[in-house]
């Protein structure tokens, strides 16, 4: 098949951040009149690649050709002027201005310095009609939904002259109908010859609207395929993959056997728990000494489940039972009072206070539980902290070290210690091994097993299926914000789980 | 009125964005009605014209303040810049013997320069406008006293003629200062509604990060609005010196707060991005009518002015909140 010339060709793109290689030798090409999905799990390098393209980041190696000419943009603005526009999930427009003005601001037609409002409105109305959008150009942008605002952003981009349109997870906050409208516009633009790069986590959407898929994993290119020739299961496999190096270094984790405990009533049970727009109502029971693994792609509702159980988000439906008694988990405080602990995936923003010391960070949750009027005596603090520094092998074993200066793995351990010190009955771990080195990963996995052996109930969330399978007694699979199935982990293999994720049905 | 409200063709029904201005207008009408019912001479047209005469300088200062608040900023230095301008004018005219045509551009330039400098500090060093203009407020007030610690009377013939002459419309009249103030308002409203500078001002107030990403000249606009505010303060200072015929370091103490109050009562959001100069005119009129009612009553202490303004501010800030909440659904 003779291929037309690529409008955009990125070759050998490399980008390093201190200590991390965010992109190594990635190739990406985009043809006029195609919708091209860019996929990958968290940290795969999707946004880094887009930021490298639009000039937000300087690249450390590689070449970007736009219509055959080498380019290096200094920022999104210059990229836009050259015809590469980005439509973000968050709207970068002004809600206090009219739709028409948002399309034309900064480039208003003028006569003798005076803005020609009539002309702006006429042209905006024409443009919106061309995109077959029923939007009143004179209304304030802020009165419209996010979906419509995105359409306006698209209208602005193509009026400025877009040859390449980048959609950076535009569908994350849209409902099904709004997505449909967005796809209609995408198809229309595609037919007009515009090249579209579409970042999404939703498999359905990839198959609905894209022609080609490029998958990244850990900053590397996994492959580029035609969507029509790529089975869903293969796409999932490309995204999740196997991290061989990790597997080699991890010894076989002996799973504890909580079978005897299964008969007892669960420590925490959610029934028909759900939150509109976050995750559909689900049932989930976690017993003493049991590790329940949550599997699913990014955006499938993994974290949302955890946040509901911890009261970080308010549930719209259903209830939570602790030891068989229905309790109202209104906020993290009440969850903590019922013995639920939650280690967030964003350890920097939602977990640790980076400028405090290891000791202060570890003591934080326990102190919060006791109430600030009853300070924990210094000696008691030191005993506790010493105990956990030893137990978790936090290095350096210095309680007065500022947390910012620890490695990722040790930061994660500090966060774990903070919750372990409160002796929780259910420990929720959201991606506890993300972004840490292999050794620390193995240690944390071992710790999860020993905690469960000690009788703690653990909800373990990870993007890495192997890890989930290795540690969990029970596996719950999520897809597109639904809990698809829950099954005991007896001889389930990665491919089986991938199949469920890909098909959205228990097999 | 079209240019004042920033309306453009294509708008037929009154939109929600005009609600704050309409609320201020109704408030003004009610207050005027109350005054007219209670006090016999109140309904004389000259009463409302006198409100303009007595507040022309405030109107000019508040117009500049409107630009700043539309970007989401604040300018606390305006009262001090007004005082400094009266002081500079008086000193240059009376003690240095400068002619009026040299004094006028010079003091206006000084005001604009002060605003420009504060705008640069705010933008390039990313410091809160509150603190930068607070520093500017102390600086300008302090500079007044380096010129003189006492009041300097102005006897310059141009100044006295401006103070005494009247622009007549039949049996009614206003001072020349009122004409100057109205010109400032009309030019300001035109700039806001029909120039890129004005639209960028709104855009920055709406979402500064977006404004930057859309390629708008954020730096230039932000600095310009403070320069405009400084210029308007200086012009307000000139008008005040016409009115007072003196320069004094204690002139216009607390005027920045009156200006902010007028802008807010006029329906401009303190968070920026929404509001009209015509609202500010109405806001100044509201403040003026309150004073007039209290003067007419004769039995009320002048502190009632402050009490009423305080209450109104609360009401209007709550109104903004309610409208804002409805907008956000």
CATH architecture of the largest domain in chain A: 3-Layer(aba) Sandwich
> Mean pLDDT score of chain A, rounded?
84
Radius of gyration of chain B: 20 Å
Distance between the amino and carboxyl termini of chain A: 37 Å
| Shape-level CATH architecture of chain B | Orthogonal Bundle
Shape of chain A: globular
What sort of overall outline of chain B do the alpha carbons produce when their principal axes are compared?
globular
CATH topology of chain B: ABC transporter involved in vitamin B12 uptake, BtuC
The major β-sheet of chain B equals: 2 strands, antiparallel
Strand content of chain A: 15-25%
What is the CA-atom radius of gyration of chain A, in angstroms?
25 Å
Order of strands in the sheet with most strands of chain A: 6-9-10-3-11-12
- Count of structural domains of chain B: 1
Question: What does it look like?
Answer:
Chain B: It is found in: Cell membrane. Chain B: InterPro entries: ABC_transp_permease (IPR001851). Chain B: It is a multi-pass membrane protein. The complex is a heterodimer of chains A (507) and B (329). By secondary structure, chain A is of the alpha/beta class. Chain A has three domains: 8-244, P-loop containing nucleotide triphosphate hydrolases (Rossmann fold, 3-Layer(aba) Sandwich), CATH 3.40.50.300; 249-339 and 424-507, Rossmann fold (3-Layer(aba) Sandwich); 353-423, no CATH class. Chain A has helices at 46-54, 76-81, 99-104, 117-130, 146-161, 176-191, 203-209, 232-240, 244-249, 302-310, 332-337, 347-351, 358-370, 378-392, 408-420, 438-453, 465-471, 494-503; strands spanning 8-17, 20-30, 35-39, 61-66, 69-70, 84-88, 110-111, 114-115, 164-168, 195-199, 212-217, 220-226, 268-275, 279-286, 291-295, 317-322, 325-327, 340-343, 426-430, 457-461, 474-479, 482-488. Chain B is mainly alpha-helical and 329 residues long. Chain B has a single domain, classed as Orthogonal Bundle (ABC transporter involved in vitamin B12 uptake, BtuC). Helix content of chain B is 73%, strand content 3%. Chain B has helices at residues 2-5, 19-38, 45-70, 78-95, 100-124, 129-147, 157-164, 176-194, 196-206, 208-213, 218-244, 255-265, 277-297, 303-327, and strands at 152-153, 167-169, 172-174, 246-247. In chain B, the strands form two sheets. Chain B has a two-stranded antiparallel ribbon. In chain B, a hairpin with a 2-residue loop joins strand 2 (167-169) and strand 3. The longest helix of chain B is centred in the last third of the chain and has 27 residues, at 218-244. The two termini of chain B are 31 Å apart. The chains are: A alpha/beta (507), B mainly alpha (329). At the A-B interface, helix 2, strand 8 and helix 4 of A face helix 9 and helix 10 of B.
